[in-house]
Amino acid sequence: MNRKVIHMVEQWNPLNLERESYKVEAEQVLTTLQQVDDPSDLGKSIQEIYQHSFQQWIPLEKCVEISYKLLAIKFEMKSIL
């Protein structure tokens, strides 16, 4: 799951930077994903992570959109186990 999530977050690229620029944020999103099951809460956390790191605001709708995809990966992996 971890690699899938990291890859998806890096591919998301909301600020149009080089993918390597998101390694720290991807790890933070992964940590948050392990603790949160609500897409809105995860979206808000993602928004805060990126805003803190890059001092740029990402619309909450974009963050919630990726949060649904990340939660789908999380729940898919849970159902396999």
From TrEMBL:
InterPro entries: Apc36109-like_dom_sf (IPR023162), DUF1871 (IPR015053). It comes from the Bacteria. This is DUF1871 family protein.
